[in-house]
């Protein structure tokens, strides 16, 4: 009953005019980010964080969350109309969505994608409401050693599952932890890794770093890509036929289930659920030969999985304080900027904020369904914008956003340097996600480690004599060993097209 009462209170707050406007602005901006190739959810959310500096924490997080799942919706438009995914999770939608557009069924592909995304998002949000409170209650029993071990598990999951190489992932995670240590030592008060530069005494700002690593780097990569023409297709008929409904309903249900359960696992990322949903649907079909030639299930299943994953991925963040993807890490950074620490204590200290944000997920999914069905033609016309204007405008916004954080030119320099580093990392196929996770989790890991050692008077056996802590540490080791045996994303792509 408490959960229902909190949800109703959150819904009342989310329905207030100002929060509805923030959610609508976030949905529009998120869809726009998804539509523009080269700007994924992580980059878009990082770039747009400065827009929320003047908002209250609840409004800021409602808008940023809407930007996040709006971008997951918007990426479908480019996948269907120009065969280029607006964000990574829409890669698999290109396979059958583009074929449907070539057959004059582009409107139907976008329609079923919007409906599947809506169902996936709503179902995952209902599950979030049911699962999050008891999980947060369990997490309240954790002490500093358990939290240290839990964050280590999260870091190992993202390091092990996020890239092509475990060694590359570990290298990037350690680099992120080292960057997080820059600044004044919180216990001794002495500078660490500051090189005598006063601007580094407060550490490297999270926002300029992620704006560079995601925003600037993605723009530099996107300007190198050849532009593709928008295919001419029928966008007037958005609703599927009766036979297409029959084929899609089961695919949407199965895609939603796959996306939700994989969203609970940190490090899986948004791409894997969509590929798993697609492969599963193809294996289950009595006519698998239709896949790759415009099968509507090939659009319905991955798009449902995509948005179910996006909402389910909020559960580890809100209940345990563990970001499960780079975009969620950026959102966690937004929480911290607003003076909030995601995790179980947030449900006790700021239930008004947590439940207003959760309730806004329901409203945001409804807004996105409206934005993506009647206005799909408008989003399609945006694809005709010259990318030179888009990239220059986005870079200008990045510079203004980095400066506005502390009115410090040094932050602009940090963003540009991180942008060049992020561009180089992608060119040599080094994963950026473990670095960002190391950067965001570093201070929490350090705090938990130090508090644990203070509890045990410097004795490390405290991590091995507490059953839950030991279990989590063993799990972290298993994750690292098992990650070398995982099926990499490029193999999933082969499986989906075979």
Please write out the topology.
Blueprint (H helix, E strand, L loop, with lengths): L1 H13 L2 H19 L5 H8 L8 H25 L11 H10 L3 H34 L4 H18 L4 H15 L2 E2 L6 E2 L13 H17 L19 H22 L7 H14 L12 H16 L1 H7 L5 H12 L6 H6 L1 H22 L3 H7 L4 H20 L2 H19 L5 H23 L6 H4 L1 H17 L5 H9 L1
Antiparallel strand pairs: 1-2
Describe the model.
- The protein has helices at residues 2-14, 17-35, 41-48, 57-81, 93-102, 106-139, 144-161, 166-180, 206-222, 242-263, 271-284, 297-312, 314-320, 326-337, 344-349, 351-372, 376-382, 387-406, 409-427, 433-455, 462-465, 467-483, 489-497; strands at residues 183-184, 191-192.
- It has a two-stranded antiparallel ribbon with strand order 1-2.
- Helix 8 crosses helix 20.
- It is built from 23 helices and 2 strands.
- The protein starts with a helix and ends with a helix.
- The chain has 498 residues and is mainly α.
Summed up, what is this model?
The chain has helices at residues 2-14, 17-35, 41-48, 57-81, 93-102, 106-139, 144-161, 166-180, 206-222, 242-263, 271-284, 297-312, 314-320, 326-337, 344-349, 351-372, 376-382, 387-406, 409-427, 433-455, 462-465, 467-483, 489-497, and strands at residues 183-184, 191-192. The chain is mainly α.
């Amino acid at each position: 009953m408490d959960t229902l009462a909190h949800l109703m209170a959150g819904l009342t707050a989310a329905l207030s005019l100002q929060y509805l406007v923030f959610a609508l602005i976030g949905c529009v901006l998120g869809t726009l980010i998804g539509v523009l190739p080269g700007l994924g959810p992580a980059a878009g959310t990082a770039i747009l964080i400065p827009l929320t500096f003047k908002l209250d924490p609840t409004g800021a997080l409602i808008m940023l969350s809407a930007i996040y799942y709006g971008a997951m919706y918007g990426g479908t438009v480019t996948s269907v109309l120009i065969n280029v995914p607006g964000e990574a999770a829409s890669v698999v939608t290109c396979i059958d969505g583009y074929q449907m557009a070539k057959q004059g069924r582009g409107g139907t592909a976008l329609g079923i994608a919007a409906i599947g995304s809506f169902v996936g998002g709503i179902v995952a949000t209902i599950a979030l409401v049911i699962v999050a409170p008891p999980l947060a209650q369990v997490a309240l029993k954790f002490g500093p050693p358990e939290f240290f071990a839990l964050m280590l598990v999260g870091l190992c999951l993202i390091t092990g599952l996020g890239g092509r190489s475990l060694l590359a992932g570990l290298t990037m995670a350690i680099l992120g932890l080292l960057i997080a240590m820059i600044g004044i030592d919180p216990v001794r008060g002495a500078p660490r890794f500051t090189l005598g530069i006063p601007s580094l005494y407060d550490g490297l700002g999270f926002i300029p770093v992620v704006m560079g690593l995601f925003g600037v780097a993605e723009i530099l990569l996107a300007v190198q890509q050849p532009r593709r023409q928008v295919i001419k297709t029928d966008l007037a008929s958005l609703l599927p036929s009766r036979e297409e409904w029959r084929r899609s309903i089961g695919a949407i249900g199965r895609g939603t289930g796959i996306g939700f359960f994989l969203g609970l696992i940190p490090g899986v990322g948004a791409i894997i659920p969509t590929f798993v949903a697609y492969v599963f649907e193809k294996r289950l079909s009595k006519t698998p030969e239709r896949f790759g030639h415009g099968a509507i299930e090939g659009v319905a299943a991955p798009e449902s999985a995509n948005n179910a994953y996006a909402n389910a991925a909020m559960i580890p963040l809100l209940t345990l304080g563990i970001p499960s993807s780079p975009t969620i890490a950026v959102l966690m950074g937004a929480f911290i900027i607003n003076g909030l620490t995601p995790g179980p204590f947030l449900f006790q200290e700021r239930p008004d904020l947590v439940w207003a944000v959760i309730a806004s997920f329901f409203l945001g999914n409804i807004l996105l369904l409206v934005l993506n069905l009647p206005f799909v033609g408008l989003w399609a016309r945006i694809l005709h914008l010259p990318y030179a204007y888009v990239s220059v405008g986005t870079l200008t916004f990045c510079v203004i956003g980095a400066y506005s954080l502390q009115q410090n030119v040094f932050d602009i320099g940090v963003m540009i340097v991180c942008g060049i580093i992020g561009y180089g990392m992608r060119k040599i196929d080094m994963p950026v996600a473990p670095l960002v996770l190391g950067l965001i989790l570093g201070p929490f890991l350090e705090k938990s480690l130090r508090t644990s050692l203070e509890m045990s008077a410097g004795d490390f056996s405290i991590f091995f004599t507490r059953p839950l802590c030991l279990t989590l540490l063993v799990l972290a080791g298993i994750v690292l060993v098992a990650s070398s045996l995982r099926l990499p994303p490029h193999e999933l792509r082969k499986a989906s097209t075979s």
